[in-house]
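Section: Multi-chain targets

For targets with more than one molecule, the full set of components is provided together so that the structure can be written out for the assembly as a whole rather than chain by chain. Components appear in the order listed by the source. The example entry contains two components.
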Amino acid sequence: MQVNKKYIKKNKTIDSIYKYFFMAMAILASSFIVLLVLFVFTKGISPFLSGYEYGQVNFFDFLFGLTYRQDKGIYGVGFIIINTFISAFAALIISFPISVLTALFIVKIAPKNLSKVMQTIVELLASIPSIVYGVFAGGVITGIVKDLALLFGVSTAGGSSLLAVVILLAIMIFPTITSLSISAIQAVDKDLEQASLALGATKTQTNFKIVLIAAKSGIFAGAILGIGRAFGEATAVAMVAGNKLFGPTFNPFDITRTLTTTMLAGLKETSGLDYDIRFSVGLVLMVVIFVSNYILNLVKKKVGNM
Amino acid sequence: METSFIVKDLDLFYGDKQALKKINMELYKNKVTAFIGPSGCGKSTFLRCLNRMNDLIEGCKIVGTIEKDGVNIYSSKTDIVDLRTKVGMVFQKPNPFPMSIFDNVAYGPRCQGLKDKKHLEEIVTKALKQAALYEEVKDRLNESALGLSGGQQQRLCIARCIAMEPEVILMDEPTSALDPIATAKIEELIEELKNDYTIIIVTHSMQQASRISDYTAFFLLGEVVEFDNTKLVFSTPKDKRTEDYITGRFG
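Its structure, encoded as tokens over all components, is:
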């Protein structure tokens, strides 16, 4: 074939133009993250610096404090960090087994039609806005918690409680973990299942001993995303948490306060230190999520290599 | 000669498509029987009838009988799990489980409820020795099986299979994913194993069939064209189509 040299040169130019175009897009996208972190960091760190206009805050009192009272100007988030960990991990503990077993049912056990319907339902659940979950929690979950508390002879703040937060978060992270588990289970090599069945294993044995083991890395990734959502959810949680002023909260029927609800509560009606300190709380939240993701990833690596 | 399977008038359908037509065959105990034929001729499908792996395929229908020890394995009385513990299978692609070498071999016995650690160790050691893998892996039984080479993985799959002490081992092109050296090792192993097991092997390689098998069945378009002593099939084929295939005129 006769090669047109001009045409080749033109193609090369287009190649390099596109290369820079894509690079520009990537830089633009990543610069948002850098800007965001930078902004939150500078705003969040400012109350701890000397010369802060509303009076410098002691960093250690802030980080380890067990009381958070705007009215008295006491800002301690130590107990809030603990509360956040408690509610997120409790939600994960409840939601994880349910999600994984649901995914296993959808992929391996349910008849085709039912499996399709259920998968659609899970996807729908994932797309429901958190404010709707919040309304549901405020109207239904708190009622259940209130009745349950009465059974134990405990009174609650109208049902707003740690337990309500945990149940709400468990429901909210269920679709995330389930969809990732579905993908992970679908990706398991059919050869492995066949090998197991050919060795005289039953279907149940194959599902638990081979399919789930082979899919564990993907399932774990689902758990990490799920707990990320549990840490970060603000709107819905704020509607049932009750925003306790001190803590930490270990009693499931007591009200609680998480990092997100602290940032959200009354954000628009405040100014000065009370406004700026929310950026500090946001900074703490980012560190909390970063650290727990890092730890879970280490665990995942260890689990995945077995 | 004792028979392991007696196949009578076996038809198999995938939906409307007939994949196996009127198969009649007797498979002998403690012999190596090879199934040869071009791709899509039904040899693997037939192999999978013998441990009912075709049950897993939707729309697969089987007519006719396969008798093992005088009982039709397709009768409602047959327990599939029981059948599969007696008729083991090795697949085309080495498919070790993502767990340790020890756990791979112990998987089958554990699924049957065996928990005693000492007994399991005995079984695993014996099976690995029989599969000629023990010397290579004895120091790393607790390491992941996925770290083994392809040939080692396939011998591990054979060890996993014989840990169940089956009567029959079905092999579905066990060497097609392996290099010549690993292939030679597996062929040697098959030679050894036939003293204790009935081996039925599907192979793409006619040389392999003539090297290792006692009996050979030639499949074409879902039918058994010829089934006889391997020497006879390769030296004096009765059917013109067999002759054409083994002399390389098609396939």
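DSSP finds twelve helices and two strands in chain A.
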